[in-house]
């Protein structure tokens, strides 16, 4: 007879849940990249038929709460690893395209608060968000994280974040840096040529896709946001899609965002 054991029931004598034990045995999903900040790679998602790799960021705030950016598909192992780090309190969508897994995360972490710009909130009327994110970080994370609001496009705006302690900037879709190896494995030849043309590969500039760039009709506010980002002098730049930068992030971003003029 097959015995089903709930993942979150503590196993007598071991003091841990089945999920936590599995997490200890499996290859860790969370990768520490500096003090107080982790990333986790998710599975691919489809965007208009194109496979996109996904990456999330977790920051431990000064008060011990976990701040989760662009959550990837939730697994039991990931949940158990996070439970070992601290309480998940903030789920952050940086733009209206990064909302896919918010519901399941909210269900799993019912005490978490949902955050996003007005465009995300408008996209997901089924979810209850805190007040819309803008240029000013809310009190909940102001001490640890700053933010800048790139806007001026009718199609896409995005809140970009900066973790002060580790000098890490975090970008969703405004910086895309697909690697050659990933593209060779996952994209067809004509798709790879398109990726180069769109400028979303690490080799072709690690930019926002050409159509997004062209949609920034009013660039004044986005230029202000870029100035704020460059003044952070970030060392690292984490991106949701593609290769992230471990060093000299400020120079990388100056090149990647040069299209704003
Ligand atoms: Fe994205």
Describe the protein's architecture and organization.
Residues 1-5 have low confidence and may be disordered. Helices cover 28% and strands 24% of the residues. The chain has a single domain, classed as Ribonuclease Z/Hydroxyacylglutathione hydrolase-like (Metallo-beta-lactamase, Chain A), CATH 3.60.15.10. The chain has a 6-stranded mixed β-sheet with strand order 3-4-5-6-7-8, with helices on one face. It has a 4-stranded mixed β-sheet with strand order 9-10-11-12, with helices on one face. Strands 1-2 form a two-stranded antiparallel sheet. The chain has helices at 18-25, 76-85, 102-108, 118-123, 180-186, 189-198, 210-215, 220-231, 249-256, and strands at residues 10-11, 16-17, 30-34, 37-47, 50-60, 66-69, 88-92, 113-115, 145-150, 158-163, 168-171, 236-239. The chain is α/β, with parallel strands linked by helices. Strand 4 and strand 5 form a beta hairpin.
């Amino acid at each position: 007879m097959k015995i089903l054991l709930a993942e979150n029931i503590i196993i007598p004598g071991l003091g841990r849940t089945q999920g936590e034990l599995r997490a200890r045995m499996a290859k860790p999903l969370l990768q520490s990249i500096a003090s107080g900040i982790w990333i986790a790679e998710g599975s691919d998602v489809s965007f208009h038929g194109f496979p996109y790799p996904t990456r999330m960021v977790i920051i431990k705030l000064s008060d011990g709460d976990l701040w989760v950016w662009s959550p990837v598909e939730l697994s039991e192992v990931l949940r158990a690893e996070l439970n070992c780090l601290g309480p998940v309190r903030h789920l952050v969508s940086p733009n209206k395209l990064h909302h896919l897994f918010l519901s399941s995360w909210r269900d799993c972490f019912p005490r978490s608060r949902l955050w996003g710009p007005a465009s995300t909130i408008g996209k997901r009327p089924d979810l209850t968000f805190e007040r819309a994110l803008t240029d000013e970080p809310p009190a909940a994370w102001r001490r640890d994280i700053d933010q800048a609001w790139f806007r001026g496009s009718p199609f896409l705006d995005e809140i970009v974040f900066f973790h002060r302690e580790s000098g890490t900037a975090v970008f969703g879709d405004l910086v895309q840096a697909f690697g050659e190896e990933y593209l060779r494995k996952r994209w067809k030849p004509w798709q790879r040529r398109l990726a180069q043309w769109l400028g979303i590969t690490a080799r072709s500039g690690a930019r926002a896709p050409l159509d997004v760039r062209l949609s920034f009709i009013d660039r004044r506010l986005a230029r202000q946001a870029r100035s704020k980002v460059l003044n952070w002098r970030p060392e690292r730049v984490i991106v949701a899609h593609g290769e992230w930068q471990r060093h000299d992030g400020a120079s990388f971003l100056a090149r990647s965002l040069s299209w704003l003029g």
